[in-house]
Structures
1.
Amino acid sequence: MAENESRKQTFTGIAARLGRLPAEKRRAALEVSAALAGVSLRASRTFVEAVPRAAKILSADDLRNWGEMGRRLAMGNAGQGAEYFERGVEALAKVPKEARSNVFKISTRQLVLSSSIAVETFDLIPLLANEIDDDSLLSETLKLAAEIANRSAKHSADFLRNAASVARVLKTFETQVTEVSRSAFDLGFLFATRTGGMTADLWSGIPKAIEGLEPEQAIQLLKNAGRVLDYGASVTIHFVSSGSEVLRRAAGAFDDWFNVLTKIAGQGNAVLIAFIRATPKFFRQLTGGSHNSTKIIAADEIHIGLIKRVLKLTAEIAERDAESALAAFRSSTAALKKVSLEQFEEWIETGLREKYEDSAKARRSYFALETRESNAFLHDTQKGLPLENIQSILRIYVEGLTGKEVEIAPLSAMPQESRIGDGRTIYLPSTVTEFDDDEMNFRLYKVLAAHGSGQIEFGTFSKDTRGLKAAYTDLRAQFEATAEQRDAFSLAGYLEDVQKGEKSLPDSGSTVPDAKLPKGSDYRAVLRVFPEPRLAKKIFGTMENARIDSRLRHSYRGLRKDLDLMKSILQKTRPYIFDVPMHQVPFELLFQITLCGGATDDAKQFYGQIVSEIETVIESYFYRRDAETPRSESELEHTGNSLKFSASSHLGGENLSTVADSVMATARVYNLFQNISAEQSAEAEPDKEEEHEYDFQDKAASEPVVDKAAKPESRPKQTQDIKDLF
């Protein structure tokens, strides 16, 4: 009797609490409890007991959805339904109100597949809300998961397992997270509408695909993936993975690659997927990457130019035959190790011209380099001395110089500026065609290999040296100083107030706090101090090659004849200085002085002051009293007893020049080039008042200022400047 009274009081209390709910929520609770009672009285009572707490969080519609999911669980197992209501919904407080309906929609759909998966997803979503910690991203994620659940309950669960990692990567885009997220979810909804469950596979690959990309690159990849979806879901998933690799290694060639892809796409998905899957290997090999390396280094402008030209050739083939284009694409990296790009182009053109009428099989075998005839055509285009013929000899030669194991790797394209390697591999042209004689071409290879080995032997990649530390501190102080401090230094010799004669800096040191070189840093860390690191890097490449040249002459007498030979050839092939574009004149002068034995007569005539300044820097930093042959034998007669010392001896105290000397010499030339640029800009402004002041109306006025005798009558135009080899 007492037990029944207690039960009545309990039900009375429950009814009273339900009566205090808002009318709409009370009506929803009564409807659900009645429906539950028809399935399980225990589940119905547990629901009614939990409703007052749940109503504080859920809306009336959400209460109905919550109860409906519990009813379906109770239909299969009454105990499981009761436990579901006992757990309550407090955890859903972290889910945005507008997204809660999707939580129940997803879980209810998954009940068709498995009650355990549905309950697991229901418990996972609050944890997901904590991890994502962004209402907008969470709402879009749940909305997309609900869309997937309408088509595949299983894949919606898989999708949610990857959702946190996608959100984490999206949040790394910071200020542009909204734009990148919009592109990602647009692709996701498009994928879900067309393919359903495969959206989970797409979502699992997105974090790796977009992590580390620039926001614009990520948006570009995702939007183009939406276009590729027209060719199928599998194609798109492969595209996202390979497209990411393209953007990381050679973003400038992405549009060209996509153009080839669209041309191939019209001829079947099988060849299209094969092309996309072959892409990472192609870009990895042409940008010098290793298959096992986790570090991806973006290609420079030279490699991007090479890649774009190869892709253009592939596109031309694809217009006629997609499978032949795929064969040429796959074989291009192997072919470019044997011949130059121009020779590769000739081989492609031969195939298009002579094999177009052949059978498809014969044409594809030609471009795949599978036939003797194809290989013969490729080698027929080969001119000069190929690297593969002497690669082992050069490796032994370099290892003898450095005492270390060094790799010799081919360059498919000549660099347009001085190249500094990585300290482990020496990059040489795949073919040298400068001379008709193989012996002369081999001597050029020796010089190039010696320069590459010199970078290793003479410390180009040294880290944490005293010289680099001092250079870093000095240059930080110089470039971080105020404009007034720099003016005082340059105009008044460390005087801040010229008239009063006050010192710019106290005796104790710089007003700029001393900065220390980060541990484990080499010359690259110092170059980043410059206001324009790209300009500094370009100058440094030439200065470091000049230093290596001087060290090679000092250390290896037997190399001097080869070095002198190359220097004389470089001198003969220099262009007339007025034929050089104005913005390239400073670099041409620098190259002539550092690696050609001196500026040409016409350069001295018209740029004498700049030439003198650069020569002073070279003499000061790279040529020493203890170097028995500081330059070529012939130049010794002209240098006399000129002062040869390290102007940066305070950087390390070494007798022979170090990489720190190259850095400091770079700073001197960098400042000089900055001044030249400023003067050229000032001179470029027209003075309208004086425009016609000296405009004499006679024939002499139209004559060139330069004496005709000073300009060579004819200079043969070269397709490849030998300067580009250094």
2.
Amino acid sequence: MDKYPEMKGHYLVMDNAPIHSSTDIGKYIHSRGYRYVYLPPYSPELNPIEQFWSVVKNLAPHLTPPYSTLLQTVANQRSAFLTLLHLTPPYSKL
């Protein structure tokens, strides 16, 4: 986030993954001058990537290519997905 000065004053939104709830992570974020907030537990509707993976997981068994091929395709296209996510309200304000 340091590369983007306009991010100062914004919150870093994190899910409740164990790595995110470490006190070291919170200290590091604060030391860099940022603030953070956690999503409520069990709230995939607030986390766009969870919505995306839900669709992928539901479609995967019905697709011709193997699941691993699908995952590789998704990984290769992640930048396009993130660009779309960045430009799509309400997530464009994150």
3.
Amino acid sequence: MTFSAFPSPSFLTGYLSFSILENQVPNHLLFFIFFLSAFLTSLFFRRIYSVSQQSVFTRTQKETSSSPFAELLDISIMNSLFSITKLGGYIILFSVFQGILQFLLSSSSFFSVMLCGLTEFSTGLNALKDTALPFSLKFPLTMGFSSFGGLCVLAQTSCVLSGTDLPLFPYLIGRIVCTLIASGLTFLFVILF
């Protein structure tokens, strides 16, 4: 589940590389850092969730539906619209919350930028872009915010997982580990190059 909220290639090349980092970093480096951090995170969790701890899956016979196709299609469309509306609502809610934070705090302070990046990462990235922080700090923070996704993505994931038996806590730990690895790799790159 940790990899379900990973930035898409178009997000990395379009928004992150072009808009936020202003083409100061080659796209292949962004891909390398994100994919390597995901791979290293999977190795970390592989040790925690070893094969011996996994539950044994049993085959169950699926029930067939007697509902007509049109009715099933209507239900699928309504469920999709409901989910999209809820996810969009979380984005709006966290963006408003972030606007309030920026109003109450100095929008250019390091604390404000960190808080914004941890709540809703895309608007947090814009706040980070507008600061006077050196690129050697902006780049690792940008990669960290993008890797974590923010509390907004966590709330969206929780919303999608409601009604399932999938726990949210391992997902959160995975996002944190991946964030630390992505930020660390980026900081290492900045130091070495």
4.
Amino acid sequence: MQSLSKKQLLDSLQFYEGIYHQKTLDRLERIVRGKEKYCTRNRAIKDYTKNNQAVLRASLENKVYGGTEQLNQVKVSKNHISLLWELYYLGSQPRSVLPLHLQNLLKHPLDLTTHWPYERDHDIVFGEKAHDLRTSLRYLWKESKKKSDLIEEAINNFQSQKWLLQKHPGNVKHTNYQDDFLDNETVDYNPDTSNEHSNTLLSFLKESVQQERQQLIFPVHEELNEDIRNNTIKDVMRHYLFLKNHPNIFQLFAAGAYYATPIVNIPMTILGHDVGIKRMRNIFYRKVALMRSTLIEEMPPLCDPLHDELQSIIADENLDKKTRQLYKKVACKSGTYTADGKLGSSSFALSSLMLDL
């Protein structure tokens, strides 16, 4: 497919005057001319692409125009809805307008990963409240709509811990530390209690682990102070709880995350030990990545200026029925909601765009 020049893109906008509202066309024109930035987020990178105009050109060619051969055969389709959604929910929302907990989730992933809340299978099976799954966090999150009060209480009481440094000495994983922590090699010590030498080794490990744990196990990243870190994680939990308590609007199940909890569940081996440090580390990485993609890329909140623009477009009396339905479908695509930016006490609310549909 031949790429369209800037002039071709500007000229072709006239074909869509009957499909998009004039405010949307004006926004597209400003982006094509380079007067307004078009931001996109990628799961593989933390920052936005630098070539905003190229991203817009690719979106316009593939999602709207369908290539140069179909410029005169424009039809309202899922591609139009997809472009509008990306324009308002992703492209026109820079990082600076995101709620503070989402900004921190983008800027400090390693710090949050090494302090992320978790629950061990070992504690559920062998702990003080063993065999009572109803008291576990995973059960509360699975029944989040019925147990919202208990989850809120758990969120309010949360204090971040360096999870890799909180392991029980008898269940420690000894690690060969290298400069690059991604290449750490882990050896599990599973001593045979009937072997005297094993007991001696276990005693030695128990005595030395408190002093060596931080150097041997994992370098902990501390870019945030404790209060900001705690409030960030709490707001991420509240954010996810809000989405989970509205399953008919926010299709978390379709995204593969409906039954997933925002906390990490650390599995154990058949011998009752925590899994190896490499696997555990990857579980934490995947969990934080899931929260980032769900809350920022797939079901992001809508900032006030863009929310007001969409609201004014749908309320425009001169708008024809087909165009109004198009914008309503955009509002329903991932669910529309707003969030305030006060860290530590963020609140989330369904948009009036959803309530009026």
